[in-house]
Amino acid sequence: MVRITEQLIRKKSEHNELIIGTLEELSLHQEDIERIEHIGHWCRDLKILLLQSNLIPKLENLNRLKKLEYLNVAINNIERIENLEGLEALRKLDLTLNFVGELTSVESLCGNYNLRELFLTGNPCTDFPGYREYVITVLPQLDHLDGKEITRSERLRAAKEFSTLREQIVQLEALHKIERDEQRVRVQQSIEEQEARVRDLPDDDERKANEFWQQKSEHCPETRIQMAMFSRRVKDRPSSDIDKPDEKKRKRRLFADCGRPYSLNESKLSFEFRDEPDRFELDLHLYKYLDTSLVKVDAQPNYVRVTVKGKIFQLALKQDIQTDRSTCQRSETTGHMLIVMPKLNPERIVVKPSTVKQPAGSHNSTGLTGTVDIRNICNTSNSAKPPRLNEDEVPDLI
Q1: Residue 368's pLDDT band (boundaries 50, 70, 90)?
Q2: DSSP secondary structure of 319-359
């Protein structure tokens, strides 16, 4: 059973700085609450109270909420309208999709003179012949019933038939109570039979879940409670059972056993990688409107890693880089990020000689002019023979 606790109310009052004494709006929907309690003592300034989609069987403990203007208890297990006389400021009451079969309980709202809107759609009492005429006669302060405006002529016609209409409503209520008692017995037997069929199966067995959700059931408070209990049991199952499918997923590895980095792209980003002789350039196509604070760049000697909103882009490099000289820039126009990583040992750059002709009148930096015929440099056929040395002129060796 889920109880209304101070911790739960403070959790739902974040918009009021966790102060519950001055709270004017409180939303406790879809909490599997089974009883209304404590709200009238802790939150007396409430103007809006939302309790839809719970398991509340009875309206109670609300008389202290003198400022409450809107009460929403749709999709609960309420079978009777009661204990709302003290809500002096109540203007709108939503009881959609409950189990109100005692239509005469609407008369308890006669003292709520500020009540203008009432919703009873989806309740058994709406199937009674003369339901609408009875309600608009009993509650003359209403302007709208089930979202439809009440006209003056409609109210006058309903008032003429009210004396006989109420007798019919009382008889239909008595029949509904008999059917409801029989329904309780049937549903209880059905629940016991269903539990006996799957008693020996573990909670995490798929057959148990299929047996429960595929069985035919009646629309009643007992069935709603059983469905909520089954869902809660699955939700409260130990995490070891719930996380079993996730354990089968392959875990991402950033490095091999030998320490070599892997390349991976978890964020599925487009990129361009350029291998220049003296540097690596990585152009990563980040989203244009992505906040830069959500991007982390880590350049290491043999890899670069970019983490985008927790997802990793890692690129292994075939040469070591100078991490202290690497730069990272992001375009304000496209949002792309350019990472420049100078190589630790850049490749040797060979500059080819220029083939451009020197303009007329320009001087060569070497001081040479004209062309050189290299074909006759070593050719001695056409040159004159050197004169023969006179041995008398050669000095003696010392």
Answers
A1: low
A2: S-B-GGG-EEEE-TTT--EEEEEEBSSPPPPPPPPP-PPPP
